[in-house]
Design brief:
By secondary structure, the protein is an all-alpha fold. The protein contains nine helices and no strands.
Length: 226
Amino acid sequence: MTSAQSKSTRKKRANGVESRQRILDATVEIAGERGYEGTSIAAVSAKCGLPASSIYWHFKDKDDLIAAVIERSFETWLVAVELPGEASGTPLERVTAMAGNLAKSLVDAPDFLRLGLMLALERRPTETRGRTVYLQVRAVAAQRIGEVIRTLLPALDETAVQTLTTYTVAGADGLFVQREINGDTVDLVAMFELHARLVYEAAVRMAAEKGAEAGEKTGAGTGVRT
């Protein structure tokens, strides 16, 4: 391949990446306004200024396009679901910081969760790929949260970890929906930080109760042996 051919190939790839991003950006706007049903290839084409043929070159159909939007958003959002290192402060401070970062990511790009929740609540004879992808990435997020709980409170058994994980995710969903309803009057960052503190305090209490139960059993067992 000559230098000119190589340069031409790189330019085509760059143009392809740029076109794909334009299509996804347009889809985010359309889907955010109209939902899954109101999103169409024609509407996306009009929004991004690219012909439908360009969209079909990148994506098989609308469902494939919606799934790609969720995947792209999730990759960015998942970075926020990281527990800061021990140098960042106490366990409570670290959990609160993670919650704040997560809320900021949703404020900056709410379309992942907005569109995902709409898809999750829908029931169709044939499962859409977009919904399947959202449920998969949601499971990954829950897994990350469970790992954080296990890291900070290793004394908790798996049942307690799952209970706390479910409660954490459900609470975050509710706070996000509340902001969608009431708009900027809801400080999502402050609400997520409060939610994180309450969950952490509940987890500490559960760990203490588990420890007390184990101590009582040990004491009872010792009494029987003596």
